[in-house]
Amino acid sequence: MTSVTEIISMVLAAGLDLAELHVMERVRRMASARELVDFMEASSFGNFLSAIPEELHDTFRADFERAALAHQDPEGFATRDYGAMIVARKPDS
What we know:
By secondary structure, this protein is of the alpha+beta class. It has helices spanning 4-13, 33-42, 57-68, and strands spanning 17-30, 77-89.
């Protein structure tokens, strides 16, 4: 994964001017452990269970859901990630 600092360095190394930088936290809430597993499978480009043999997928999903319950709050589950939007401009000549 490339960090925001590395991206800014690449922008500056390319001779561009950094015009804007926005770092945003995204929080997604899921009501159930099943919804959490479904989200993780859908958002992992097929990699979520890639290290698990096919015949163990159902067992792993069930075990994962049970383990996730320890992290449930009154509203369900929350996942957090961060995104960055960078606007760069070619300097005036």
